[in-house]
What we know:
10 helices, disordered N terminus, mainly alpha, DNA-binding
Amino acid sequence: MSESKADQPDETAKPRRRQARGERRIQQLLDAAASVFCRTGYTSASTNAIAREAGVSPGTLYQFFPNKEAIAVELGERLNRRMLETHGVVFTFENTALPLRELLDAVLDPMIEFNCANPAFWTLLQSSDAPGHFLEEHAALHDSIQTRISELIGVRNPGLSPERRTHTATMAFALFKAGLGLILGHEGAEREAYVAELKTALYGYLAPVLGTEGVPAQP
Amino acid sequence: MSESKADQPDETAKPRRRQARGERRIQQLLDAAASVFCRTGYTSASTNAIAREAGVSPGTLYQFFPNKEAIAVELGERLNRRMLETHGVVFTFENTALPLRELLDAVLDPMIEFNCANPAFWTLLQSSDAPGHFLEEHAALHDSIQTRISELIGVRNPGLSPERRTHTATMAFALFKAGLGLILGHEGAEREAYVAELKTALYGYLAPVLGTEGVPAQP
DNA sequence: CAAGAATGCGAGCGGTCGCTCGTGTTTGTC
DNA sequence: GACAAACACGAGCGACCGCTCGCATTCTTG
């Protein structure tokens, strides 16, 4: 059960050297997993189905992942990292000062676009019925996003009590996920309509708390 | 595989005569199913676990239900029927004329109370990843509630186009389900806080569409 | 090229799940 | 009490699932 022969117990160690071929396989497997998870959800997705979708034998899958959980965890981590890398900017101070309507556009549009391109992310966010250690990763994913929302609310309205701030952020995130589900469930004009509805809903919810006007630059 | 020996193929026939004991067993099994579904979700719930929770053998379970789907379908139908019987009144015209805030109280409070007492209902509403024919029942459940919401919106604002009305009802229902999830996930003061947040959110979303004032009685 | 590591395969193991079936018990009817 | 129908049991069947293992192939490194 020893994980590495190195004297220094490297936390992030991948004790196995990977060839380029291996990295490619991992990506294939994660793409296949994303597809299968989207279609059937995490619990009903079978590792054999993921391997088949990736055009690979079950044994090959387990060359790269110790178990089914690890696939979902790695997929969630990669998607979350990619989302923060490409769109994490939306939570910065420049946007915080915008009028609420434009703030929502600036935050929601990239998020929605990312989730439409990677619908597996929403699926993972929704699968709270998963068994085992994947629950921890699920919670981590959740917190990662919700913390950003909470911070944004805090900067925008510093007078809010910590409890109210948490409640507002939690509810705002829940509303966002709900709207995202509708958005992902439709296409074309319908999808755009639900994007507009979601923005209306969040505007109506947040306006009394955050104010509709932009905040003037601090001296 | 013949379902009945009767000459006339009765659609709604229960070809099996039930004794009082049987009806009691059915209720025990549905209660157990509700409990297990809540704990693990529909897919991960095993029929053996349901039977065990009901204090009954697997064979006995299949004396009353042809398969696992049928349990969820029957449970969903019963819960839906019971909700409409006890709280269906909230969608009537008397409430429609109230100021929006009171309208929301009148509609949401009974709904929330019912779902807190029967959390399995929300679980069934959420399990859209279920396989097989249960999907149809799931959709029926959904429509049953959403139609009520749509009608209420239609009465309150007759000028709305059918598309906008559908979008508004769908989004309102999605927001409600999201808030309900938070409410069911907390207890005591936290729960009350999320009830208030949900009402705030729906008020903010619906006020621009339905108006905040009450509608005067029609001549 | 030789050798070892990484990659790839797929039959199949242990386990669970949905569900069945043979058998025995309780209940209602005459 | 006699008889049939409804109810109850629980071992276990077939299917599938997560995962393993022995072995073949390909890559890297010297």
